[in-house]
Amino acid sequence: IQYYFHQKVKGGSLDVHPTEKALIVQYEVEATILGEMGEPMVGERKECQKIIRLKSLNVNTDIASLAQKVVEECRLIHPSKLPEVEQLLFYLQNCRKPGNEKHSSRDFISFEGMELDQEANINSIDDYVELLYEEIPEKVKGATLILHLARNSGNLKDLMQNKTALGALARVLREDWKQSVDLTTTIISVFFCFSSFSQFHMLVTHYKVGALCMNIIEHELMKYDLWQDELQKKKQNQNAKKEHEKALRKYQGLLTKQEQLLQVGLYLLLNLAEDTWTELKMRNKNIVQTLVKTLERQDEELLLVVVTFLKKLSVFMENKNDMAETNAVMKLARLLSSDHKDLLNNTLRLLLNLSFDTGIRSQMVQAGLIPKLSSLLADESQRQLCMCILYHISMDDRFKSMFAYTDCIPQLMKMLFVCGESHTDKKLISFCINLAANKKNAQVICEGNGLKMLMNRGLKPKDVFFMKMIRNLSQHDGPTKSLFIDYVGDLAAQVVGEEKEDYVIECLGTLANLTIPDLDWDLVLKEYNLVPYLKDHLKPGSAEDDLILEMVILIGTVSTDDSCAVTMAKSGIIPTLIDLLNDVPAYLIDLMHDQNAEIRKVCHNTLDIIAEHDAAWWGRVQSEKFRWHNSQWLEMVEGRAVADDGDPFGYGDDGDPLAYIDDGDPFTRYGNILERPDLFYSAVNGTISPEVFTDYLNGDVGQAGGFPDR
């Protein structure tokens, strides 16, 4: 009996290679053994793929001609698919420029040195697993074939059900990861393919691949340090120059493989970190320190994974603090000069997350980020991120003056006036308002026609944000303030023109800042009829507090001129000012316990001065202080009342009655109570009168500083 062999090839789908300039052709081979009469006896199908590498493809390549050539030379592609080939080639030509890759969930990984275009079939998985029980070269081959299957997401469910294959991979990784970098990289890459999908994370966790990756990465970083030390020693030895060159070539080859391993390992961990608890376990194993150390590397694809991981971690305060302690900003600073757009963009996003911390902003300034970020403002794709980071830095008065020595302000001014009058970029103008609060910056802003252009935008469309910037500029003594003389009349006209209150406040504030000796305030008051306006709007209930404050400051400014002071006195405005002054103590008492420490300090000092000169206010101030202290005691008692049933007295495990006191501030949780011994004493009725409390503070109660008998 004669048998005949028949093979049939069916063309399949086309796609681009995830990392290379290449096309992937999926096809199916159907092999059948025919009987003597031509009837099929035995048949088998196998899914295969062919990689068509296009090394000559560049920006000048004629896509139509190349597509025609690909279709003619590859019989697996039907001529009807010519338009699809052209489209894929166009994508490779225009979307794979350096630094412009659009990464999918697995595009970070490139598998150099692996024969991935070798045919592999899911039905032959058992044969591949057998290779994992052989020597290292065979293990690498078997793992590579399984990886080839895993890269096709359609095979992952079948692989997941093959516990023998996954168990063998995990065992080989656990036992042999120190024996071969290629083997380790390949096996981790298999599990990486699973980690790209959330539904397979439990599988990766089950085989403890994440914990093993952490150990492998830590070991590789230590090995890298040893390589560096060895190279340095050979470099210092003048008699071993050739030996050093040989070691350097070997080191570069090892480094390439190591960085590929680090890349796939860290990306697997990044995928697993979608789960918060898993991320917490990584933090407990010092993942932040590991990532920051890896920032020293040069490979941009590896750095992209590292920065992306750090960006994800930075949203939690504990991780942000770890980055501050390891001085991550200093290592990130060099990445701002990278041509890799994805790396640059992710670095800026990470820096933006970190810039909310005051201490890290100081590190950014020390690392020289202000000039680097200022130069990036010219890049429209990165402009908004740079501006937000610089805005945060400009919030600190210590760093405002540094902007004057960069090209930041000229660029901002140009951007300000490019925007139309109907649209003002809030981030941009807010940044400029901060910078205008510094004297040196104000001089740079007002150079040339700077102030004139700002006044035009502030006065004509009546833009309150521009007027805020103008007001900040007007506060600086010197040549800048003198430039405002030409605009006093325009500002005064806005004040009496019944404009919106927030806009008038900025105009009044600007006028109040103009303490210029050569300015004829008397003429301004008369020409724009300002005195009646001020008198009418100072009446109680006629205006908001912010507006009244600016009017009072303006009255103080114009009263430095003797003739204006006489005009103000004759207008009858002084009694109104006295009435306002009488309301000040009550207002200060309301602010005695403000959350802002500086406000509390000013209020306490001012009230002490008032109390020294007015006995009635002295008693009221002391009563308010006592009431506040007593309310703290009541809150403490109420807090004990809601303690757990197992500890009804709120003493805690150590028997300390202060263990559960919490005033909201973790740094003064116990100190505030311990520093107020008056809270632990009471009279017979449970309270202390303000008079006794005051005597106690003065040391006049009882003998030896004690209280009267209860």
Describe the structure.
The chain has helices at 63-73, 82-95, 125-131, 136-150, 156-161, 163-176, 181-195, 201-206, 209-236, 241-272, 276-284, 287-294, 300-313, 317-325, 328-333, 341-354, 358-366, 369-376, 383-394, 408-418, 426-435, 439-445, 450-459, 464-473, 479-482, 488-495, 501-513, 521-527, 530-537, 545-558, 562-570, 574-582, 584-590, 597-613, 615-641, 671-674, 690-697, and strands spanning 4-16, 22-34, 40-53. The chain has 710 residues and is mostly helical. A hairpin with a 5-residue loop joins β1 and β2. α1 (63-73) crosses α2 (82-95), α12 (287-294) runs antiparallel to α13 (300-313) and α34 crosses α35 (615-641). The radius of gyration is 38 Å and the shape is elongated.
